[in-house]
Write a structure and sequence with these properties.
16 strands; mainly beta; Double-stranded beta-helix; about 10% helix
Length: about 220
């Protein structure tokens, strides 16, 4: 029956207060009263008086995006109204930043965020590679950040006694206080002969957590 569509998670109720909420597992609703930022092309619907404007990354950000394929292509949303955001049917979750929190996030996983959060594109320390490097977006401040990935994410605690090794295609983000580096799990000879394919991972050590998606297929490849 048509009425079966109108469950609490599918029906878009008027917002009680400005800001971000999960509409359901695969979309985020944002009640805009002023300004917010979102991934370019991620808006799926809106109502009210809203204006959408592409936000530049600056010369340095554009260069990093061209060299590495990473980056954070954003748009600003201004006015009063409500907007819904999603990306390729991916799973959405919201991170609530408190004072002193800092999170490193892969640009391809950023969906939208509060204007009270600051971000900058930085090269991951210890993860330099021939011909380029690993660039991520560092978020700090107070507010909310919506992250999207192609499946429900796994959050793994990291401690000084138990570093975590993650595939660079599967990592979504991690606590910015963690130390990073590259780890080789095979010998050079094994790679030449054709090994398991798990040759190099990102090593995370210290105190914090890492967010990974349960898939090693890049989201660009999965979209085709």
């Amino acid at each position: 029956m048509i009425s079966d569509l109108f469950s609490s998670e599918n029906l878009a109720q008027p917002s009680a207060a400005p800001g971000m909420t999960l509409q359901n597992a695969k979309s985020v609703k944002y009640a805009v009263n002023g300004e917010m930022f979102a991934r370019q092309g991620s808006m799926i619907a809106f109502r009210g008086n809203l204006q959408f404007e592409r936000k530049g990354q600056g010369i340095g950000g554009m260069l990093k995006r061209a060299v590495t394929g990473e980056g954070l292509a954003l748009m600003s949303v201004r006015g009063q109204g409500e907007a819904w955001f999603a990306h390729q049917g991916g799973h959405c979750f919201v991170v609530d930043f408190e004072t002193g929190d800092a999170l490193t996030v892969n640009g391809r996983n950023v969906l939208c965020f509060d204007p009270s959060l600051s971000y900058e594109i930085k090269m991951v320390k210890g993860a330099g590679m021939t011909g380029g490097g690993l660039f991520n977006s560092l978020f700090t401040g107070t507010g909310k950040l919506a992250i999207v990935c192609d499946a429900s994410p796994v959050i793994i605690p990291v401690s000084p006694q138990a570093p975590v090794y993650v595939d660079t295609d599967a990592v979504v983000g991690w606590s910015a206080s963690l130390d990073t580096g590259l780890h080789r799990s095979q010998s050079v000879g094994s790679m030449i002969r054709g090994g398991s394919g798990e040759a190099v991972q990102l090593k995370l050590s210290g105190e914090g957590f890492v967010i990974v998606r349960p898939s090693e297929v890049t989201e660009t490849a999965a979209a085709h």
